[in-house]
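Posting for a labmate who doesn't have an account.
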Amino acid sequence: MKLEDLEKNLVAASENGESISPILPEGVKNYLIDIDGTICDDIPNEEPERMATAAIYPDALVTLNKWYDEGHIIFFFTSRTEDHRVITEAWLKFHGFKYHGMVMGKPRGGNYHWIDNHLVKATRYRGKFTDLVDKEVTIQVFDDEHHE
């Protein structure tokens, strides 16, 4: 499904009688997927000549395309720069990745802590894409006196 079609399905939301940003329909997820070291060889920005020939992680292709086909939103969120967009899009197309878009220029270095007014779930890639499973872990949150 195209991103434009998914956006038509956003659900209106309100808080205290005021409209707020719409939300995704029940069961639909926004996946933000890293590229280097997650779906292919880990290529540093300083060696862009290697990006065109990066070895693919086949389980990433199968899993991400399955999620796309299930109606989820697939965006690549990469530290590659805008200068790398054309070569990256060509590589993704060559290998058959289905996706809705790509955000370039993610800060480098890892140790990410995403703060958002929407629920955020993070999954660290450790060598293999599979279906996601439920697991209890400890996370850091704001002390906002809400106990959910």
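Reply:
Got it, the structure tokens are right above this. Residues 14 and 45 are 42 Å apart (CA to CA).
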